[in-house]
Amino acid sequence: MKASLFCTARYIGAAPHDIWPLSGEYYSSDAAVRSMQTTFDQFRCADEFGFDWVTVAEHHYSGFSLTPNPMVMAGALSQLVRRARIAVLGPTLPILNPVRVAEELAMLDTMSGGRVVAGMMRGTPNEYVTYNINPAESRERFAEALHLIRRAWTETRPFGWLGRYYQYRTISIWPRPVQKPHPPLYMSGSSPEAGEFAAKNHVGIGFAFTTVPLAKSAVQHYRACARDSGWEPAADDVIYRAMFHVADTDDEAFADMSTLPPRISLVDQNKAIAEGVRQSGYYGSDAVAQRQRTSRRELADRIALGQVIVGGPDTVLAQVRHIRDELGAGVLDLVVGAQLGERTLHSIELFGTQVLPRMREL
Amino acid sequence: MSERIFAQRWAGEDRRLPYCEAGSGETIVAITGDGGLPTRAHALLAERRRVLVFAMPADTGSPREAARQIVPAVAALGIERFDLIGERTGAAAAMWLALAPEAEIGSVVLAGPDGQPDEAFREIKQPVLVLSGTNDHSNTGGRWRALLPDCHFMFVYDAGRAIGAERPQALAFIAREFFERRDLFLVSRENGMVFP
Asked: What's the CA gap between A336 and A240, in Å, rounded?
């Protein structure tokens, strides 16, 4: 089993974490610069201590993440992180120009010598407000954009595109991906529709901030759909994301995590956006389950449900084993749980040196 | 606009060559490979142009022979210059027609071309746009593109070979653009202003 470190580049200055969009009045450039440096330190640490991947993602208008364009962060990491793969998980595809996404990921794959992992996401629903895209179009835009990006990566001669949502008269991207036919592709597998689409199109799936029981059901659905499409997903075709913190002892780790604010669903912080998104049909056929995964929960419940991995190395390994046994996931995407300076770096080091070697045997 | 606007007519010697016609203005000749029935794409083109839809004649042995029948039939209607659409197996007939010395063709759109392209098609002088549906996994469109190195090539998302039936608005839009502007169609003229 592989491990990735996902540092969201959280803003470490004083600002509310439960407002979206967050006003620039709270913003301090100095704090933002420190946030970026902290992020780089954590990614460097993960690379040094053996993490297989580092993960970046796209979020807007919030201190939760200072990477509205994860490609920019990935570009920096391509020169800073020398060994680990760079997982862009990912661009919020339906709100972006897909040709630009194909170009940027190909450029990153070239800059990193073929280390890019390409996750194509629909994003959190509030992101649709960012660039004024109708969330009701999300799935169709996503599907078309993904097909277009694959063509852009693999067609060797110029071609045009007459889509339902995208139209280009000629496309011929340079640079082109180093990995052939293209970097490994992932998408969210949370909803039944997404699992079916991923299986049909031979794309790996990932789960972010869900629960192990919900993910288990979704993985079973994905694997069944893949079999119907004539292929069997490997362990590495499933990524599971959870928050983590490791300390030398369980007591220290739990004490550290007691400072963690409750998990907030950004979209639910703005009632107008939450209701507008719900009315759009964004959540698909299992809307209730989709909303459940972002419910507020106490830390103990979040640990029990596999949303948070916390403890000393042995305890954390047991939690990882449970996730592996339940899901058959091959990649664990670990989100920095608590921004505690040196203790966070120590958490990354402990995971890399005392958990990861044993995790590889799972 | 519905394909029901088309009227069935007869052309050629002894008026034995059936075709369907609608619209007015400069002429588009479409040669279809699926029985010759007009699609919604043809109807949309007929909003601004005169559109004649020929099927690949059933009693002819080859696309070349079909072109031989259609060229004089169109001329007999008093049409001297026209643009061409070749669809599916009608693509080869459209290319033979475009190569006929007596035909004055503006430009050619091949939508979901089927069959093996003839080496003679390399001699085509008119601008050619090849459309290939993303659900057509035969790579036939790719073979046509390979034979026509100067052609424009576009994928039509979520369509098989029957592009005119599956994505009529897309086919009509791009054909209209290509016929009006030929190679210049590469440069968008669409108005991007949201509010003046």
From this structure: 14
Is B68 among the domain residues?
yes
* Domain-embedded: residue B191: no
Shortest Cα–Cα distance, B32 to chain A (Å): 21
Residues 180-199 of A with CB under 8 A from B: none
- Who among A147, A162, A164 is closest to B174 (CB)? A162
Tell whether A333 lies on the interface with B, counting CB pairs under 8 A.
no
Report the predicted TM-score, pTM, of the whole model to 2 decimal places: 0.95
Residue with tokens 């091949």: B110
Q: Which residues of B touch A164 (CB under 8 A)?
A: 157-158
B187 close contact with A: CB closer than 8 A? yes
Q: Are B77 and B53 in contact (CB under 8 A)?
A: no
Q: What is the pLDDT along chain A (362 residues), one digit of tens a residue?
A: 999 999 999 999 999 988 999 999 999 999 999 999 999 999 999 999 999 999 999 999 999 999 999 999 999 999 999 999 999 998 999 999 999 999 999 999 999 999 999 999 998 889 999 999 999 999 999 999 999 999 999 999 999 999 999 999 999 999 999 999 999 999 999 999 999 999 999 999 999 989 999 999 999 999 999 999 999 999 999 999 999 999 999 999 999 998 776 667 777 778 899 889 889 888 877 776 666 666 777 888 899 999 999 999 999 999 999 999 999 999 999 999 888 999 999 999 999 999 999 999 88
Domain A2-359 adopts which CATH fold?
A: TIM Barrel (3.20.20)
What one-letter code names the amino acid at A208?
Answer: A
Per the structure, how many domains does chain B have? 1
Check CB contact under 8 Å for B187 and A169: yes
**What does the block give as tokens for B182?**
């030929």
Q: Could you tell me whether strands A85-92 and A53-56 are parallel, antiparallel, or unpaired per DSSP bridges? A: parallel
Q: Which of B134, B143, B157, B167 to mutate to test the interface with A (most CBs of A within 10 A)?
A: B157
Chain B residues touching A163 at Cβ < 8 A: 157-158
SS3 of chain B: CCHHHCEEEEECHHHCEEEEEECCCCEEEEEECCCCCCCHHHHHHCCCCEEEEEECCCCCCCHHHHHHHHHHHHHHCCCCEEEEEEECCHHHHHHHHHHCCCCEEEEEEEECCCCCCCHHHHHCCCCEEEEEECCCCCCHHHHHHHHCCCCEEEEECCCCCCHHHHCHHHHHHHHHHHHHHHHHHHCCCCCCCCCC
